[in-house]
Amino acid sequence: MPTPILMPALSPTMTEGKLAKWIKKEGDAVKSGDVLAEIETDKATMEVEAVDEGTLGRIVVPAGAENVAVNAPIAYLLNEGESASALDAIGKAAPAVAPKPAPAAPAAAAPAPAAAAPAAAPQTAPAAPAPAAAAPAKDGQRLFASPLARRLAAEANLDLARIPGSGPHGRIVKSDIESAKASGVAAAPAAAPAAAAPAPRPAAAAPAAPPTPLPTEGFTELPLSTMRKVIARRLMESKQTIPHFYLTVEAEIDALLALRTQLNAKAPEGVKLSVNDLVIKACGMALARVPRANAIWGGDKILLNKTCDVSVAVALDDGLITPVIRSADKKGLAAISTEMKALADRAKAGKLLPEEYSGGAFSLSNLGMFGIKEFAAVINPPQGSILAVGKGEQRAVVKGGALAVATMMSCTISCDHRVIDGAIGAQFLDQIKKLLEDPITMML
């Protein structure tokens, strides 16, 4: 049976995407690691690699198709020994697109019944097989396996969580299943009985009044990119569901600026530390000192991050993205600076890999280079906090009972009150302030 090639989820927030370009064409031989297509995700335009070998038998989603749902078949791969006639049973299914919400029905004049009847299940095209189910989690991480590997594992009753992957980015492929079958060490445990399906929810009430119509004159319409749609959805979700609270401190950074000048004078060629590089280091070390702040909301639990990762906001032409500096507390300033520059360059070119912008419990947003004195940032769910850094500017301060001039920088942290209480947030922000004001301690 031909193997479906599914629309991949190339970021944790991706539910749909645009198939920008096919690299392979029907009839081309494909081997593991070959680039098949380019997908425009909510974060970047990325290449999709093959995880199985065979011949590209049929493309069912053409280049340029938008709103293609994650896990929808986009093409079919003929396995070794299969002919094109094997595709006849599949048919020519229409590209699967993410469903759009139906317009709200007008309110009925008659009283509503006590309980709404469940909505009829949408019909699916019989020609297209259902996408393969996701593999079980391994240590809280998502497992990646090709559709063919999933099918072979199910047929052989093998547990994918116990099979190491040798494909691109650790993906489990056909050869891994064959090795596991030969060794006999990955037998799956007996499946638990299926849980009862939840009762259907009552239909949502129609709005009391129609929305205010949009203006039709004096405006130029800009189509929403995939990234802009996701930014709008996730930030609205953040403000509506996360109880934000805010804390602000002023850090004196004259010592930090002096240290930066000294380090840049002695730095190797190609390395030039920015103020933001030192702030990243300070945030990583503060997370290590206050581990309770290095957390995310898990619904029915709080999850503590085992590493002190700092997601750093990078502005793009049509949005922003937050590549992650992993274990920032353990890296030297030169390493942080070099890595951050490389991540920012790849972000602006749309070439970041999912693992480079996923994870972490804390973000940093710095608008000081734009002259912004102070601001409060919106938490990036499911993270627990985000630090907003303003510009450093000379201000009058009191030292030893006398007026003096110092370079001050505002730092405002937004915290999820479900995860971080006020005292924890204050301790975390205080550690950041201490490290910024005594930066030599970051060198120890």
How do the helices and strands line up, and which of them pair or pack?
Blueprint lengths: L2 E4 L9 E7 L6 E2 L4 E6 L4 E5 L4 E6 L8 E2 L3 E6 L68 H9 L18 H10 L42 H16 L2 E9 L1 H13 L8 H15 L5 E3 L4 E3 L5 E3 L1 E3 L2 E3 L2 E2 L7 H16 L5 H4 L4 E5 L18 E15 L2 E15 L5 H16 L7
Parallel strand pairs: 12-16, 16-17
Antiparallel strand pairs: 1-8, 2-4, 2-7, 3-6, 4-5, 6-8, 9-18, 10-11, 12-15, 13-14, 17-18
Helix pairs in contact: 1-2, 5-6, 5-8
Keywords: Acyltransferase, Lipoyl, Pyruvate, Transferase
Catalytic activity: N(6)-[(R)-dihydrolipoyl]-L-lysyl-[protein] + acetyl-CoA = N(6)-[(R)-S(8)-acetyldihydrolipoyl]-L-lysyl-[protein] + CoA
Pfam families: 2-oxoacid_dh, Biotin_lipoyl, E3_binding
3D architecture notes:
- The structure is a single chain.
- By secondary structure, the protein is α+β, with helices and mostly antiparallel strands.
- The chain folds into 2 domains: 3-98 and 141-183, Beta Barrel (OB fold (Dihydrolipoamide Acetyltransferase, E2P)), CATH 2.40.50; 226-443, Chloramphenicol acetyltransferase-like domain (Chloramphenicol Acetyltransferase, 2-Layer Sandwich).
- 22% of the residues lie in helices and 22% in strands.
- The chain contains 8 helices and 18 strands.
- It has helices at residues 147-155, 174-183, 226-241, 254-266, 275-289, 333-348, 354-357, 422-437, and strands spanning 3-6, 16-22, 29-30, 35-40, 45-49, 54-59, 68-69, 73-78, 244-252, 295-297, 302-304, 310-312, 314-316, 319-321, 324-325, 362-366, 385-399, 402-416.
- A 6-stranded mixed β-sheet has the order 9-18-17-16-12-15. A 4-stranded antiparallel β-sheet has the order 1-8-6-3, with no helix packed on it.
